[in-house]
Every structure is written in structure tokens, then in C-alpha cells.
Amino acid sequence: MVMVEQKKKRFALFLATSDSDFVKKTYGGYFNVFVSTFGEEGEQWDLFRVIDGDFPDEKDLDKYDGFVISGSPHDAFADADWIVKLCNVVQKLDELKKKVLGICFGHQIITRVKGGKIGRAVKGADMGLRRISIAKDNEKLRGHFDGEVPGSLAIIKCHQDEVLELPESATVLASSEICEVEMFSIGDHLLCIQGHPEYNKEILFEIVDRVLKMKLMEQEFADKAKSTMDTAQPDRDLWQKLCKTFLKGRSEQV
């Protein structure tokens, strides 16, 4: 019998934010937060700190099975060198039809690359736990959720920008009263989520406290954000299932 060694799946995280002292101390960095949320045993995950100008060589992009673009304190519509380069890399990944999961800033970057419009959120910044409505009749979501698509999911939100106009090829998968485009997909290779499937309560609270200390939000807004988690939690298991199945296919155990 000839034994064929299965090729190890390989993924890359494009980290568009810096590690806070809290995240470094508690988790060893955001990379570990993402890998613990979306990764599985036997996979290889590589970190590229795109916020610092760290990108893979273009010739190496095809070696990866999928990519995740993180959130960021920066505007996805800005023209800093690293943001422009990130857009160029995402354009190449789109051409290669590579799986790309965009989260918050990443969700907006993909919108920009595909010709949509992004800008300041119409109803203002959103921070805290939100329940968003899911497109139950979407065939793609039925596949990701093994046929049982939930009517709504709770997710932690932390953003001041949003998708104002979708790319022509996009399909809306979730929306809310606060944000019309909470999640969308393009083809079978791009999935974009405005919220943070990887966040938990302590990460949210630390961000709120840090932003409050920087005097970038009012105490009332901070208290309201924290109060959203008094009696509720994000649906992390279901978000994990969705994101893992998107990145790896239905054959993976999620």
C-alpha cells in the first residue's frame, strides 16, 4: 500500500492593528486570538503585520489556502502606503480566487478593492454586542451552517466606518438596524463581516477602556457599550463554524 501524505493546509493572517499591552500579556498577541478562533490542529498559520509594511512576496500567495484580514484603528478608505499595498495584494488574491475572510477593516478593504464605497457610519460609531439578522434563504449560508441557518446571530461590534455602497457582485448575508451591510459575500472566495467573530467580552472591555482613556469617546457611550454584555454573549461557536467552513470547506470538522 502506498501512503500519500496529506498536504498541510496553510493560512495567513494580515494583521492591520498593533497588539495592545493587554492582548500581548493575556494572549501573546492578536495572532493567537485569531488562530485559536479560526485555526485547527495540523494547519500552518503565518503572520504578516501589514500595518508595519510586512507582506508576503507575490510569488508566495498561491501557496496559501486562505487569508484573514483583521480589523484596524485606521480608515480603509485612507491612502497610507501600507493600505494601498494591502489593496493591491487583495486585488491579486481576488484574481487568484483565493479564499479571503475580511473582518471589520478587512470587510471594508475588500469593498474598496471590488469597487464599493466605504465611509463614516451613517448612524454613528457602533461598539458593543449586537444581534444581526441573517439571510436565512441564502443557499451559500445553508452550506456553511449544514442547512440550519439561524435567523440572527450576536456579534461584538467596534467600528466607526461602514460599507455605504456594495460592490456590484456582492450578496448581502446579514444586516441590522444600525448597519445595513453587516456581512456579504462575493463569489465563493470572499466573505466579509463587519463585526468581530474573534472578540470576547474582555477584549471588548479593554478596547472601550483604552479608547475612553484617550478621550475618543464619552463615558456614557462607553458604559452603554459595556452594558450590552450584561446578560448576553456573542454566538462565538456559530461564527466559528461559519468562518471555518468558508475558509476550509465542508469537509473540515468545525
Automatic annotation (TrEMBL):
Residues 54-200 form the Glutamine amidotransferase domain. PROSITE patterns: GATASE_TYPE_1 (PS51273). It is found in: Cytoplasm, Cytosol. Belongs to the peptidase C26 family. InterPro entries: ChyE-like (IPR044992), Class_I_gatase-like (IPR029062), GATASE (IPR017926). The lineage of its organism: Eukaryota, Viridiplantae, Streptophyta, Embryophyta, Tracheophyta. Pathway: Secondary metabolite biosynthesis. This is Gamma-glutamyl peptidase 3. CDD domains: GATase1_1.
